[in-house]
Design goal:
This protein is α+β, with helices and mostly antiparallel strands. The chain has helices at residues 40-58, 78-87, and strands at 16-22, 25-33, 65-70, 90-91, 116-121, 124-131, 142-148. The strands form two sheets. A five-stranded mixed sheet has the order 1-2-3-5-4, with no helix packed on it. β2 (25-33), α1 and β3 (65-70) form a beta-alpha-beta unit. The two termini are 30 Å apart.
Length: 154
């Protein structure tokens, strides 16, 4: 487990990086928790965090990458689209209207938005993506199950 610093000018942010071997293949997992973009300073920091995350992943030569966490951004945000475009990551659940994750306290989905995301690239195939039951956090948990494509299956 490593905690690489994300190169930022104004914010102190780190990602947590795990390197895992599954079915004989390397998998790199990043977790992120970006600032809530409220107020001018936090908004600038949040945008910088997403840009820094994109740079970190762009410069990573790992073949299989999963980047997940509380991104504190909706799928509609320009900075989030830029992150996906620059890194070639795919959203585990690209439908912006399913699986809202925040706030877990509201029972009506119309008052909820998706702030938590699982992104991936490489020889990974998405098998399942779900939103779990509220567990006491202000966010619902999300899970994804992936398969690894072998050299023979390409």
């Amino acid at each position: 487990v490593e905690t690489p610093a994300i190169a930022l000018k104004n914010c102190r942010t780190r990602a947590i990086r795990f390197d895992i071997t599954a079915q004989g293949q390397a998998l790199r997992l990043y977790t992120f928790h970006t600032k809530v973009p409220t107020g001018r300073k936090n908004y600038a920091c949040h945008k910088e965090e997403l840009t820094g995350a994109a740079t970190l992943i762009q410069n990573d030569n790992a073949e299989n990458i999963i980047a997940l966490g509380d991104w504190n951004t909706t799928p509609h945000a320009l900075a989030f689209h830029t992150l996906i475009h620059k890194t070639f990551l795919t959203q585990a659940n690209s439908n912006p209207f399913t699986h809202p994750t925040w706030p877990a306290q509201f029972m009506l989905p119309i008052f909820q938005i998706k702030l938590d995301h699982i992104l991936y690239k490489g020889k990974l195939t998405l098998i399942d993506h779900r939103r779990g039951a509220a567990l006491g956090s202000d966010h619902y948990p999300i899970t994804a199950r992936f398969g690894l494509l072998s050299e023979r299956s390409e």
